[in-house]
Amino acid sequence: MSRWFANPDAITAPDDVEWAPWVRYTRMPPVYDAPGTKEVAAYTPEEQALNSSVHESGHAVLYMAAGHRINSITLDPADGLQREAQASIDYEPGATGPWLDFVLKDAAGERAETRWLHETGRWTPGRAWVAERHAWHDRKHADEVVRTCHGRELTFNGDHGDWGDYAWIMDRADEALDPVWEQVLALAHYVAEHRRVTGEEAARITGFAR
Questions:
Q1: If you write DSSP's letter for every residue of 171-182 in order, what string do you get?
Q2: Sign of CA dihedral 206, 72, 109, 30
Q3: How far apart are CA 95 and CA 26, in angstroms?
Q4: Most exposed: 24, 38, 125, 199, by fewest CB within 10 Å?
Q5: Cα distance between residue 108 and residue 111, in whole Å
């Protein structure tokens, strides 16, 4: 078992779901001494662009490694005011397969982001917390997959032996990222440089057949 921290300052979310576990809980303790997550992370524009590209490339590579397809990855630039550079994936619709393919894809973004922070010497407890808080949409989707496929709610109990607990899913995502980590980095740098990458380009860069 490992401890999770409840974050009472729920991030922006619809009123009816903002206190759901996939929004509230983080493995890193919450940070309250800054106006928002942007100030806690304190990235340069170049760091933020690459950080977001790594996050989305983690999703994309595990998804493609499982035999699924994406249409594109797009990195929207910062607007110079409030919005930071933010990458997103357009997934090819209609994918089917084992439930684990989809929850590992969901967890891979924040796990790739955290790994990149460690490997590049950028990791801080605050930045790790920000990575988790920004991943609530991914965690929500993982919850939906577990509910649909198994009729149970995704838990945040820190139970590394329970396949329905997010700690277990994060561990499996870490393991799945190990053999494809170089592909994740290669794709991330390409996204950060080119801003938009087609599914065909992503498959070529990572070596996965399309």
A1: HHHHHHHGGGHH
A2: positive
A3: 29
A4: 125
A5: 5
> Would you say residue 66 has pLDDT above 70?
yes
pLDDT tens, 27-64? Answer: 999 887 767 888 899 999 999 999 999 999 999 999 99
- Give the count of beta carbons closer than 10 Å to the beta carbon of residue 86: 17
Span 133-180, pLDDT tens digits:
999 999 999 999 999 999 999 999 999 999 999 999 999 999 999 999
Average pLDDT, the chain: 90
Distance linking the first and last C-alpha atoms of the chain: 40
Tokens for 123? 């990791």
CA-to-CA distance for 207 and 75, rounded, in angstroms?
21
The pair of structure tokens assigned to 79 is 């607007």
d(Cα 159, Cα 195) in Å, to the nearest integer? 38
For residues 59 and 173, the answer to whether their CB atoms sit within 8 Å is: no
- Give the number of other CB atoms < 10 A from CB of residue 98: 10
> Is the pTM of the predicted complex or chain greater than 0.90?
yes
Query: 109 — alpha (psi -120 to 50), left (phi > 0) or beta?
Result: alpha
